[in-house]
Amino acid sequence: MATSTTVSSTSSPSPPEDAATAVIACGALGAHVRELARERGWSVEIHCLPPLLHNRPGQIAPAVEQLATSLLASGRRVAVAYADCGTYGALDALCERLGVERLAGLHCYDVLAGSERVRALLEEEPGTYVLTDFLVRSFRRTVVRELGLDRHPELRPDYFSHYRRVVWLAQRRSDELEAEARAVARFLDLPLEVLDTGLGGLERDLGQLVASRSVRPAGRHGGD
């Protein structure tokens, strides 16, 4: 399983101790990252990348690299609020090369619910379609429209016939959001289960990223 990157760059100099920390956030986590930063009083700059990059994960690492390189060149420290998110190690390779860290986990489900919890859900029922608060709110745009199901609803079984249930990992459960989650489940013609996760996992891991020295002095390595 992919984990957060801790190995430092051998080409980028360390920023000064008082350098600002810039958080490059996955758009699907961006609202929660902003919320936590505000509540905890973290002195950070938050830069969100488009959430639709998740539909094209091969573009995630290049997008992070472009932004991270610019931020590092301006003297900022950089933390990456992404899990691997389908990059199959490309994001880890980038983080290692630039000497920055990312959130642990294979995907945002691990970040929000914990990898062991998510693994247990999928072992219990491999045909589990997982929702987060972001996916509940954006399902029509990020799934239905992106897959062309608004124009070709007959394709829905081709995409979803192997699923057996929907599990909503609820960060901020509300009656309104639950109604939207049930509408998604009805669209998929699947039963809905709700697992309240809160934001504790993201808060803990993000706090560690913000507190860590994300860029180490040139020539130093994590195992030194």
Explained architecture:
The chain is α/β, with parallel strands linked by helices. It has 2 domains: 21-105 and 200-211; 115-196, no CATH class. Helices cover 42% and strands 16% of the residues. It has helices at residues 30-40, 60-73, 90-98, 108-113, 115-124, 133-145, 156-160, 175-188, 200-211; strands at residues 21-26, 44-49, 77-81, 101-102, 128-132, 165-170, 192-196. The strands form 2 sheets. It has a 4-stranded parallel beta sheet with strand order 2-1-3-4, with helices on both faces. α2 packs parallel to α3 (90-98) and α6 (133-145) runs parallel beside α8. The model is unreliable at 1-13 and 214-224 (pLDDT under 50).
Round the Cα radius of gyration to an integer and report it: 18 Å
**Spatial strand arrangement across the major sheet:** 2-1-3-4
Q: Uncertain regions: pLDDT < 50 for 5+ in a row? A: 1-13, 214-224
Q: With helices defined by DSSP (H or I, 4 residues minimum), what is the helix count? A: 9
Number of domains: 2
